[in-house]
């Protein structure tokens, strides 16, 4: 009785997609990224403490926390008892980089939630790792787990482009 040999050849496209997706979703061995002080520079600032704690930065806004860097035209910080709840950035477009996770992205609006370590890109949203790209109406990126959720606008679809990892690199290595 002869056994039939298994051939992986017909399954290589599926393997390629899985390896490529792992390159975009694989967590790096890093400490939590949304920790430490938040630094903001801008052309102007308007802040109020009552009735709510809110600060509005305008013009060439750069916000950093850990290795997360956000660039925008306008940034509104909402705080509760001195703790930042959300940072909502707008511009054309708003962009962010995260060097340790080798990610960068942009959208019309960016909502940063330091407490839950989330970045939400809305409106023509794109997220890259190296050449790999995902896009849709909204891209939510979870910094600590490096997971991504993408939704499309009504009647539209999400899009992804994944490139196979090179043989001499790890699946999560490289630069954005």
Report on the structure:
This protein has one helix at residues 12-25, and strands at 38-41, 44-48, 53-65, 68-80, 83-98, 103-113, 118-129, 132-142, 147-151, 159-161. By secondary structure, the protein is mainly β. It has a single domain (30-161), classed as Lipopolysaccharide (LPS) transport protein A like domain (lipopolysaccharide transport protein A fold, Sandwich), CATH 2.60.450.10. Strands 1, 2, 3, 4, 5, 6, 7, 8, 9 and 10 form a ten-stranded antiparallel β-sheet that branches. It is globular, with a radius of gyration of 20 Å. The N and C termini lie far apart (53 Å). Residues 6-32 have low confidence and may be disordered.
SSE diagram, text form:
Elements: H1 12-25, E1 38-41, E2 44-48, E3 53-65, E4 68-80, E5 83-98, E6 103-113, E7 118-129, E8 132-142, E9 147-151, E10 159-161
Antiparallel strand pairs: 1-3, 2-3, 3-4, 4-5, 5-6, 6-7, 7-8, 8-9, 8-10
């Amino acid at each position: 009785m002869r056994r039939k040999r298994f051939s992986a050849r017909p399954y290589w496209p599926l393997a390629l997609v899985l390896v490529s997706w792992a390159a975009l979703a694989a967590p790096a061995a890093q400490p939590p990224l949304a920790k430490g002080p938040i630094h903001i520079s801008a052309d102007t600032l308007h802040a109020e403490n009552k009735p709510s704690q809110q600060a509005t930065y305008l013009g060439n806004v750069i916000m950093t926390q850990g290795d997360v860097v956000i660039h925008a035209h306008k940034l509104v910080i909402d705080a509760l008892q001195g703790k930042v709840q959300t940072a909502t950035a707008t511009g054309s477009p708003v962009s962010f980089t995260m060097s340790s996770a080798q990610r960068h992205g942009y959208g019309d609006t960016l909502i940063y939630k330091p407490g839950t370590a989330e970045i939400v890109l809305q409106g023509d949203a794109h997220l890259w790792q190296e050449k790999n790209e995902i896009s849709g109406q909204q891209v939510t990126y979870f910094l600590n787990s490096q997971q991504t959720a993408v939704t499309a606008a009504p009647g539209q679809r999400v899009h992804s482009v994944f490139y196979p990892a090179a043989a001499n690199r790890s699946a999560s290595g490289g630069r954005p």
